[in-house]
Amino acid sequence: MKEWQTFVRRFSDMTEGKRELFIKDLTPGTAKYDTKHVIAVVARSATGLTDPNILWIRGESGEKAVEPWYIAIEQVMKEDCVPGKPWEDVLDAVAKRAK
């Protein structure tokens, strides 16, 4: 089972279900910290997920949630980069580009 992490402004922003996320690989090795833009199902429990992995949630200041969530990646988006400003919310930048 792989481990990933994602960041949210507030822990309450994370909800169960299908989500568009940027996740970072926590697997030791050359791919550690690689970021992927994905469509995935997230849940508090691995039960019912197909091929679940661990997902650690971190708040805006880097604080790690006490308990892990679980993620089942459905689609990896094929983008080399997302244009935007460094301080801009990355999902907002993706939405602007799609228009």
For the terminal residues, how far apart are their CA atoms?
Answer: 36 Å
β-strand percent reads 35-45%
Share of helix, binned:
under 10%
Return the domain count: 1
Strand line-up across the major sheet: 1-2-3-5-4
Largest sheet features:
5 strands, mixed, barrel
Please describe the structure with a list of short key phrases separated by commas or semicolons:
1 helix; mainly beta; 99 residues; globular; 5-stranded mixed β-barrel
Give a brief rundown of this model:
The chain has 99 residues and is mainly beta.
Structure commentary:
This protein is mainly β. The chain has one domain. The chain has 1 helix and 5 strands; from the N terminus they run βββββα. Strands 1-2-3-5-4 form a 5-stranded mixed beta barrel. It is globular and about 35 Å long. It starts with a strand and ends with a helix. The mean pLDDT is 87.
